[in-house]
Every structure is written in structure tokens, then in C-alpha cells.
Design goal:
- By secondary structure, this protein is mainly β.
- It has one domain: Jelly Rolls.
- Helices cover about 5% and strands about 50% of the residues.
- The protein has 1 helix and 8 strands; from the N terminus they run αββββββββ.
- A 4-stranded antiparallel β-sheet has the order 1-8-3-6, with no helix packed on it. It has a 4-stranded antiparallel β-sheet with strand order 2-7-4-5, with no helix packed on it.
- The longest helix is centred in the first third of the chain and has 6 residues.
């Protein structure tokens, strides 16, 4: 998204900040978060937003994934697929133009946090 599009979408932008690889201005401001502990689909944002990071706090059982979509549903453009069997912080800091939806899958999904705005 261009600078004017980010402003119109209501996303905080720091025009003096460093730029992302595609030349668009960096986002500024704080993130909201969602703490996810069960399998299922969660729409975090209806409309343009940004995915900050996915944190796997407690790893999932033998299998488990966290899939993030640039969408208001569990379909469309995939932003990230995180292996939930490995604890860690996975930073993205990317703009999502449609929305942010997260799908947690697996029989023992563990505990994760998604930061977004």
C-alpha cells in the first residue's frame, strides 16, 4: 500500500521512518494481540491492517500449524504458515490489505499469541 492508502486505511505511518523493501513507508504505533489456545479460525481484523508477529509460547503436540491469511475468512492470500511444534517468535511486520484471519490446527494446538493492528 502507498502512503496515502495506509493513511486512508487508518494505519499509523511514520513518514520519517525507514522504508520497507518495496519502498512503502514503515508502520508505526502499537499492536493489539490475540492469545490463542484452541484449534479453530479467528478473524482478527476486518479491513486493512498489519501482522506484527506470531509467538508460539507453548509448542503444540506432534502436529500443529498456525496459518495467517490476508483475508476476512480462512481462504485467500496466505501471509504465513508457522510450525506450532517449535516455540519461538516469528516476526513479519507486513501490511494486510483485506483483513487478518488466523487458523490454528492440530489436536493439541499449544499456546500462541498473534500481534496485529
Amino acid at each position: 500500500m502507498s502512503y496515502p492508502e495506509l493513511i486512508l486505511a487508518g494505519l499509523p505511518v511514520d513518514p520519517g521512518a525507514s522504508r520497507s523493501p518495496d519502498g512503502s513507508p514503515a508502520l508505526s504505533g502499537t499492536f493489539a494481540y490475540s492469545h490463542l489456545t484452541a484449534s479453530g479460525t479467528t478473524t482478527l481484523k476486518n479491513g486493512p491492517g498489519a501482522l506484527g508477529c506470531v509467538v508460539v509460547n507453548t509448542k503444540a503436540g506432534a502436529s500443529g500449524t498456525i496459518t495467517v491469511y490476508d483475508s476476512t475468512t480462512a481462504a485467500g492470500s496466505v501471509v504465513a504458515v508457522v510450525d506450532a511444534t517449535v516455540s519461538g517468535t516469528y516476526s513479519y511486520n507486513v501490511v494486510c490489505t483485506v483483513g487478518i484471519t488466523v487458523v490454528v490446527s492440530g489436536s493439541a494446538p499449544g499456546d500462541s499469541t498473534v500481534a496485529w493492528r
